[in-house]
Amino acid sequence: QVDVAAMVRLFGYVDVTDTAFIVAVLSIAFNPLFWNVVARWEHKTRALSQVFGSARAACYCLGAVILLLNCVRSHCFTEAMKSQPRLEGWDYHWTYYSGLAISAVGTLFVISSFLALGFTGTFLGDYFGILMEEKVTSFPFSVLDNPMYWGSTAIYLGWSLMHASPAGLLLTAVVAISYTIAVLYEG
C-alpha cells in the first residue's frame, strides 16, 4: 500500500499553472516527439538527405538541432525550478550531495552512451541509413537499456535534489514519462 499523503504534501509546493512550469513541460514533451517525427519522416522520404546533399550531413544537422533543443529544455527546466518554492526540509548538504552523485551517475551513462554509439549512432543515424556494423552491447548498454534516456533522467533528478525543488521532481517525472513513451514509439 502506498502512502500518497507525502506526495500530496510535496506537490502542494508546485504551481502547475506557472508559465515557466508550463513552458518546461512543453519543452520536455516536445523534444522526443520532434526527433522521432523528423527521423521517421527522413526514413520515409529522405528529404533531409536530399536538402543537405548527404545522409551524414543531414544527420549531423539534425543532431545539432537536437542538442540545441536539449539546451533549451534544460534552461526551461532550471527556470521553472527557480520560479517555484524550495522544500526547506531538503535544503541540507546530504540532499545536495545525493543529487550531485545521482547527476554524476547520469552523466556517466550519457557520456559513455555517446562514446559507445558515436555521433550518428546517438543522433538517429539509422533513420538516415547510417548503420552501425553491429549492435552495441558494451557498457553502459550491458547494464541498462536506453542508458542515454535514463542517464538524462537521472541528471534532472539530481539537479532537482540539489536545488531542493519539488517542481523539479515533478518535471523529472515528466522527463521519465516522455522518455518511456519515446522508447515505446521507437521500439
Automatic annotation (TrEMBL):
Its main location: endoplasmic reticulum. One of its GO terms (biological process) is methylation. GO terms for cellular component: endoplasmic reticulum membrane. Its EC number is 2.1.1.17, 2.1.1.71. The chain crosses the membrane at residues 20-39, 51-75, 95-124, 165-185. Keywords: Endoplasmic reticulum, Lipid biosynthesis, Lipid metabolism, Membrane, Methyltransferase, Mitochondrion, Phospholipid biosynthesis, Phospholipid metabolism, S-adenosyl-L-methionine, Transferase, Transmembrane, Transmembrane helix. It is found in: Endoplasmic reticulum membrane. It catalyses: 1,2-di-(9Z,12Z-octadecadienoyl)-sn-glycero-3-phosphoethanolamine + S-adenosyl-L-methionine = 1,2-di-(9Z,12Z-octadecadienoyl)-sn-glycero-3-phospho-N-methylethanolamine + S-adenosyl-L-homocysteine + H(+); 1,2-di-(9Z,12Z,15Z-octadecatrienoyl)-sn-glycero-3-phospho-N,N-dimethylethanolamine + S-adenosyl-L-methionine = 1,2-di-(9Z,12Z,15Z-octadecatrienoyl)-sn-glycero-3-phosphocholine + S-adenosyl-L-homocysteine + H(+); 1,2-di-(9Z-octadecenoyl)-sn-glycero-3-phospho-N-methylethanolamine + S-adenosyl-L-methionine = 1,2-di-(9Z-octadecenoyl)-sn-glycero-3-phospho-N,N-dimethylethanolamine + S-adenosyl-L-homocysteine + H(+); 1,2-di-(9Z,12Z-octadecadienoyl)-sn-glycero-3-phospho-N,N-dimethylethanolamine + S-adenosyl-L-methionine = 1,2-di-(9Z,12Z-octadecadienoyl)-sn-glycero-3-phosphocholine + S-adenosyl-L-homocysteine + H(+). It is a multi-pass membrane protein. InterPro entries: PEMT/MFAP, Phopholipid_MeTrfase. One of its GO terms (molecular function) is phosphatidyl-N-methylethanolamine N-methyltransferase activity. Pathway: Lipid metabolism; Phospholipid metabolism; phosphatidylcholine biosynthesis. PANTHER family: PHOSPHATIDYLETHANOLAMINE N-METHYLTRANSFERASE. This is Phosphatidylethanolamine N-methyltransferase. It comes from Malurus elegans (Red-winged fairywren).
